[in-house]
């Protein structure tokens, strides 16, 4: 499995990283996702305490940068970053997988998503996808590292496999030694030391299935994952190696229509307006609730008067806008007073300890605002017994 491993005790940006691992031994090809508790210092190392209470040595971290493999400089990985790593036993290092930092379109930050105003389209990291609107599942991702045994940047790639036969769905991580060129083939010598697979064509997943593959530039000393397609007798790159420099951008009209089926890049503004709900701790200084935010009123022990609703700012055009709030009841028979004009579909009884969520939807018809509220109450555990 490919576990997510969090740091233990590091409280400052130091180079020595320690963490607990759920496996009992560290083997070649072991993959992990490391969550950084703090940003890294220069030349970071990772020491794992294994499930059998033994520890590994302080193993250095590397990534592919311009000109070759590099150790991360200070602050290369920020606090909270999730980084996919594979253990390279032969070189005694953890290597970031499927990374090539010659990619130059720029990266969206969490601050930009929080603000929701930036309109320039850029790449997004797996961490931000996970933190904002991605549900992760674990998959089996231990697969062997195949060393590229070429002596120069030729199309015919060779290597030695640890398995005895090549079957459909076999995954490998190819450690590319020299720059990978177009129309490359891979010939593996199997574990018996004699049988070979023959030279099998290599394809990028976005290439036309009836044409030779164009990879773009894949530099030496990088790691790329491939899967064997027995039906078409080809190695196919897992994921997509995109060599474009300009990209179509998701517009609000695309989301409203819901009919576009091809990939586009996305701006922080679109994510903020469609996928992101900001949570705000309510204070008495808030005189009007803004749309598309969740207000936490904490514990409410007296009658609650909901502030007015701001129907001018922070609205998303051509989409449903809402106002959300929640609280815990601190008294029985709590009364709620809504702003003038809000229609409430039902008013349930609220008692001490109940969890209450209120959703007010804003509909606009003939340039007139209409507000409809619903109240959801979860009874305190003692009332359900």
Structure, briefly:
The chain is mainly beta. The chain contains five helices and 25 strands.
Question: Could you tell me the mean pLDDT?
Answer: 83
Please describe the biggest sheet, giving its number of strands, its sense, and whether it closes into a barrel: 8 strands, mixed
Label the overall shape: elongated
Q: Which ranges are low-confidence, i.e. pLDDT below 50, for 5 or more consecutive residues?
A: 134-141, 206-212
The residue fraction in helices comes out at under 10%
- End-to-end Cα distance: 41 Å
Strand content: 25-35%
Sketch the topology as an H/E string, one letter per element: EEEEEEEEHHEEEEEEEHHEEEEEEEEEEH
Radius of gyration: 27 Å
Structural class, from helix and strand content? mainly beta
- Strand tally is 25
Number of helices: 5
Structural notes for this entry:
- The longest helix is centred in the middle third of the chain and has 8 residues, at 126-133.
- It contains five helices and 25 strands.
- It is elongated, with a radius of gyration of 27 Å.
- Helices cover 8% and strands 34% of the residues.
- The strands form five sheets. Strands 1, 2, 3, 4, 5, 6, 7 and 8 form an eight-stranded mixed β-sheet that branches. It has a seven-stranded mixed β-sheet with strand order 9-11-14-15-13-12-10, with no helix packed on it. The chain has a six-stranded mixed β-sheet with strand order 16-18-21-24-25-23, with no helix packed on it.
- By secondary structure, it is mainly beta.
- The relative contact order is 0.09.
- Residues 134-141 and 206-212 have low confidence and may be disordered.
């Amino acid at each position: 499995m490919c576990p997510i491993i969090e740091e233990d005790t590091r409280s400052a940006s130091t180079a020595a990283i320690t963490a607990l691992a759920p496996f009992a031994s560290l083997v070649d090809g072991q993959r992990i996702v490391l969550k950084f508790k703090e940003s890294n210092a220069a030349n970071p190392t990772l020491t794992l305490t294994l499930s059998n209470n033994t520890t590994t040595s302080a193993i250095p971290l590397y990534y592919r940068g311009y000109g070759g493999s590099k150790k991360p400089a200070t602050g290369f990985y920020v606090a909270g970053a999730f980084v996919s790593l594979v253990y390279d036993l032969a070189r005694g290092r953890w290597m970031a997988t499927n990374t090539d930092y010659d990619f130059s379109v720029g990266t969206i930050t969490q601050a930009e998503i929080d603000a929701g105003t930036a309109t320039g389209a850029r790449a997004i990291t797996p961490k931000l996808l996970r933190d904002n609107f991605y549900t992760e599942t674990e998959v089996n991702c231990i697969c062997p590292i195949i060393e590229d045994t070429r002596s120069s940047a030729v199309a015919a790639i060779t290597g030695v496999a640890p398995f005895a036969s090549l079957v459909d769905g076999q995954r490998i991580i190819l450690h590319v030694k020299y720059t990978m060129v177009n129309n490359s083939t891979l010939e593996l010598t199997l574990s018996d030391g004699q049988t070979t697979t023959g030279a099998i064509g290599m394809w990028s997943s976005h290439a036309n299935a009836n044409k030779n593959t164009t990879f773009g530039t894949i530099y030496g000393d990088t790691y790329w994952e491939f899967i064997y397609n027995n039906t078409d007798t080809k190695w196919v790159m897992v994921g997509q190696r995109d060599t474009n420099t300009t990209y179509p951008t998701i517009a609000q009209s695309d989301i409203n229509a819901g009919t576009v089926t091809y990939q586009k890049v996305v701006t922080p503004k679109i994510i903020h307006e469609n996928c992101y709900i900001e949570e705000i701790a309510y204070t008495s200084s808030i005189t009007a609730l803004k749309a598309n935010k969740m207000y936490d009123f904490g514990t409410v022990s007296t009658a609650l008067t909901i502030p007015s609703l701001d129907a001018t700012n922070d609205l998303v055009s051509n989409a449903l806008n809402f106002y959300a709030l929640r609280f815990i009841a601190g008294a029985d028979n709590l009364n709620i007073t809504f702003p003038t004009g809000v229609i409430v579909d039902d008013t349930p009884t609220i008692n001490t300890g109940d969890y209450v969520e209120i959703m007010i939807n804003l509909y606009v018809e003939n340039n007139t605002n209409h507000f409809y509220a619903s109240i959801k109450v979860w009874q305190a555990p003692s009332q359900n017994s």
